[in-house]
Structures are given as structure tokens and as C-alpha cells.
User: What shape does this take?
Amino acid sequence: MSKSGKAKTYILLILAGIVVGASCMIALNYAWVQSSKSESCMACHVHPESDASWKQSMHYNNGSGTMTECAACHLPPKGSLEHVMAKVTTGVRDVWSYITKNPEEIDWDSKGELEYAQTIVYNESCKACHVNLFPEGITDDGVTSHLYYEENEEKLNLQCISCHLDAGHYNPNYKHSAMTEAPVTDNGVKYEAAATVTEFANFTETVPGTSASINMIAIPGGSFVMGSPEDEPFHKANEAPQRNVTISPFFMAEVEVTWDQFWAFYGETMSEGRTPPEVIYANNEREDCDAVSGPTPPFGFPDQGWGMGDRPAITMTHYSAQTFCQWLSLKTGKKYRLPTEAEWEYAARGGTTTPYYFEGNPKKFTNEGFWNGMFGADTTVINSHVIYVNNSKNRTQEPAKMKANPFGLKNMLGNVMEYCSDWYAEDAYAQMQDGAVDPTGPESGEEHVVRGGLYTDDAANLRSAARGKTNHVDWLRTDPQNPKSIWWYSDIKGIGFRVVCEVPEGVNAN
Assistant: This one.
């Protein structure tokens, strides 16, 4: 072949390469663009309601007619390496899940919870779309909230999704506004008088003027060893040294305070608007106080849309729980309060000395460790006693489903953490004398003791001796109010309480 022929061949090959390369680039770009459209996302996502809930949301159904695609929220902003990497990894994961997972076995309800949403929604993408945080028509509360966000976004790691969970997918059980009235809990019965207690036995407290009643269990006095030995699986330093403790008889609620009971309190004591905390404290601390000032309206649905009724009331502060006890005492003429930490552990153990009040080794029940992680934890016994990470479906459950401990108390372990009256200290047991009688904990502190674990906890954290504490500042992290609420937490769901009643005078508890 002549030199001119070879040159022509090379030119043709180069041109052909350019055409093929350009075609590939066009095809790849087309595939890249098409795969970012909502139709492509929904082809892999088998959530039964994702399409419908998206079309009901403000990202699709809004006055401007603007539609926000799935990728605009679930990927970082375009033009960044993070966007490319996230799209590739998300796409591979979604395709793999589509091929290997059974949609009927997926807990779809948990996918709508804030904790999961925060892992799949990119805050930078929210800000890329919503560049003006103070648009025309924004309410005064909205201005306050967005100012708080601007000032604290980086310091507190705030995310838009924390307040706008339903922006991309409509959720009828989500509300982003203050509650205007207490839910109706009237069951057709209104009690005229409190229960009369003449003997040390189980009784049902009836709250005058309301339809609320509370089953109270008689807890006999006795002695027990508080804390856990060093060889107990998952033992922690704050559970030692063990102490011999004696507890006087008392009554304890069979289950955590329910929503029906809490709303009865709220309905009678609700403080209108933003009553200053100092006014509340001043009224409730008066020695002649005959009517307590109760909670201001919560923001949104405090039950998280999980249901009210007999489910445990949640998200209230320690002060709110104490005020409930104060109200209950005034209504019934008895002395109601939160349990001390010693009373709580004594009642939770129910006379047992093992890690749980039922048989079983924490090592078999936990999800931790290679073997249990690969083949699953033993749930045959614990599932009937405890609402925890393996059976809760990422939400609280009605306590009636669980078996009672030897004293007749339900849900002492799991479901929700329960407030105690004690201040928390890591070395509380070191400060306590061996042989203490009815100890009440440290004289002062910054956080309070919580016990029992919650619905997202592993079995390792649900042992009778396991201790926890409030995290007051972090639990109010996204509350934009100034001052912050003294009644409701914005950033913790699994916290509640149960009440204790002291033995009335004249009743022989021995």
C-alpha cells in the first residue's frame, strides 16, 4: 500500500474512533442522565407506597408546579466527586437489594423514620435547592427556626430533614407544627374519687375528674445486691462496686405511664403558649400549690405517629415527669413520685440475682460478636419479655404484649428508658455505703439516671444492672426555642417513666 493509502487508512481509523468514542460518550451520558430520573429510581425501589407518597408531598404536589426528582435529595449536589461516588455506590446497592431481597420481609415503617432518613438524604442538596431560608410567607416560628439553624448548623450538626421529614414523602402521621389541643382520651368513664388503700396489696388508682386509671403493684420490702459482678457479660465500670441495699415497701406502676394517662394530666394542666419557665417553676414549687402548671403544647406528634392509648408516653423531660407525679399526688391525696435508682433495680430484678429476671446469658441474646452476627442471636426467651432492637420494628410497643417479671411488673427492661429521681454519677456506688437503706443517690449533679434501655437497644444494654443517664443538651439539639422547652425533648424518642406510690399512713406493709 502506498504512503497516501496508509495515511487515508489512519485518518479513517481516527475518524471512526472519534465517532465510536463520541457515540459511547453520548450513550453513557444518556444512561447517566436517565438513571438519575425518578422513573429509574422507582424501577428498583420496591417500596409499595414510595411513588404515591412522593406525589402527595410538597416536592411534587405544590403551588409552583415544580417537581423535585429523587436524585435531588438522595444524592449530593451535581458537579462534585461525592455525587459521582454516591450515585455509583447507591445504584449498586439498590440493584443488589432488588435482586436479592424479598420486599415482604423489609420493615418499611422503619424506612420512614427520621433516623433512617438522615442516612439517605444529603443536607448539602437541601441547601442547594433552598438557597433562601426566609421566603415570602414564612411564619414567625419558621423565621426563629431557620435563624437557629443558620447559627448552629455546623456546631450541632443540624440537618434540614430533622424538621422537614415529610418534604419528599407525605406522611399523615407527621406534623410540623404545635399541637393545638389535647387528644381525646375519654373512654366514657369519669372517676369521682381516688382509690382507697387499706392494705398492702395491688390496687388500681383512679384519678378523680378524669378517665385515667393506673394499675399499681405492691412491691414488698427486702434486701438485694445492687450492681453487677465484674464477670457478668457486658459488665460496665459504673455498675460497681456491688452494694448490699435494703429497700422499704412501696407501690410501683405495672407499666410505664401511658399516653391516655399523660393526656389526662396534660388536659388539666396545659400551660397556654410560651409561658416563661420561671413562672412555671415559681408556681409548682409553692408549698401551698393546689394546682400545678403543666406542659406547653408539644411540636408535632409526640407519639411519632406510632399510636397512643396504652403505648408508653414518650419524649417528655424529667421535669415534665416530676410534674406529672406532683399532679397525681394532688389529685389522689397520695404521695406519687419517680422511683429511686435503687428502688428501680430492686423492682426490676424481682428477687432474682441473674443478669435478667428471666433465664439466659447476655452473650446468647446479643447481636454483638462474629457468631451471633453471622447466624443470629438466640431470641426464644427474651422475645416474650423484652421489646428491643430484634422485635420492636424500630418503635415502642404496647406493654401488654410482654410477660411480667416475678413482682408482676411489665417492660422494666426495654421499650423505653425510664427516669429515676437520682442524679447520675459514674461512681455513684462507690459513694454509697454498703448496707445502705433506701439510698437516694448523689446530692447534686447535671444529668439524671435512666434505667431499662429502649426499643433500639441490644440485649447487652438491657441487663437489670445496666445504667444510663439523660443527655439534656443533646436531646434538645434541634429545639430552636429560646429558652428551650422544659417539657418536651426534640431529639430523643425512647424515654418515658413509671410512677411509684409511697405506702399511705395507717397501711401495714410488713
Residues 35-162 form one domain. The mean pLDDT is 89.
